[in-house]
Amino acid sequence: MIRLVLAEDQGMVLGAFARLLSFEPDLEVVATATDGTQALAAVEEHDPDVLVTDVEMPGLSGLDVAAELHRMRARTRLVIVTTFARSGYLRRALESGVSGYVLKDAPVDQLVDTVRRVHAGQRVVDPALAVAAWDGADPMTDRERDVLRLAAEGLPNSDIAAHLHLAEGTVRNYLSTAITKLGVRNRIEAARVARDRGWL
């Protein structure tokens, strides 16, 4: 049996995934989660073979979960299932050790096949997405991303500085650099462009 944890913040989608995957004779859903924090806890508690997770969830995203499990050197393999065919998401997923990347509009047979192949040690990514992943590299540094992510939430420079333990002038410099790199006029546009490309 391939033991699975499923993480998805939309209850109806989560229930559908759990039911469809449970129909397979070699798959067993041992736990479900509706956010990234629950997903990490479920992996720690159940030690599944594969975690199937969405990208965008409350709290920790699927990419955050992937990065944390990669840091922990967990044996659980990860499959991302998402509506977002963004090259930045895929690149970050691969860098975090994600083994599979499937779009939600793919047939369920493709997800089942991906889970089985990932469990067998393979890496499975839709070929069209794999090509898209290299169309444009993320020009921002991790720190510029951190600052821009908080700016996108509407925090003023002073709050961003306090949150990241930086000087306010340093925050302004990071924002200015990110705006310049993305070729936009302000922090709002920078956050929108970065998010659309899957870089935040």
TrEMBL record:
Organism: Pseudonocardia xinjiangensis
The entry's keywords: DNA-binding, Phosphoprotein
Residues with the 4-aspartylphosphate modification: D54
InterPro entries in alphabetical order: CheY-like_superfamily, Sig_transdc_resp-reg_C-effctor, Sig_transdc_resp-reg_receiver, Tscrpt_reg_LuxR_C, WalR-like, WH-like_DNA-bd_sf
Region forming the signal peptide: none
Protein known as: Response regulator transcription factor
Lineage, uppermost ranks: Bacteria, Bacillati, Actinomycetota, Actinomycetes, Pseudonocardiales
HTH luxR-type domain segment(s): 133-198
Every Response regulatory domain range: 3-119
Domain of life: Bacteria
